[in-house]
Specification:
The protein is 65% helix and 7% strand. The two termini are 18 Å apart. Bound molecules: zinc ion (ZN).
């Protein structure tokens, strides 16, 4: 869980500070926002991206999932990271989403 929380924090930091073009470490495409790319657009991360979408569907249900999918990519990233880091007591409220997002985004540092 510590690794998951550290990764989520690093992703949030990268999302709010990433204002330069970089190359995706997975597909080598040039991207202005690596977090949005990895979460919403990287086609080489489809299996891990599907795990994120499955986790969101399980937690939010069909209507909640569809309302998230209609958001633009920046809004989707913000909401996913909000869900992934939402506390409940001294734990995470949605650990399945946190694990899936951390696993997907860990490719940015591997
Ligand atoms: Zn990529």
């Amino acid at each position: 869980m510590k690794y998951t929380c550290q990764t989520i924090l690093k992703v949030i930091g990268k999302l709010v500070s990433n204002q330069y073009v970089s190359h995706c470490k997975v597909c080598d495409k040039r991207t202005f926002n690596s977090v949005e790319h990895v979460i919403c657009f990287c086609t080489n991360n489809d299996a891990q991206g599907n795990r994120v979408r499955d986790a969101v569907y399980d937690v939010k249900g069909h209507d909640g999932f569809m309302s998230i999918m209609y958001l633009n990519s920046a809004q989707q990233c913000e909401l996913l990271l909000q869900l992934a880091s939402e506390p409940e007591g001294d734990a995470l409220r949605y650990p399945c989403i946190a694990h899936a997002v951390a696993s997907l985004c860990s490719s940015m540092w591997d």
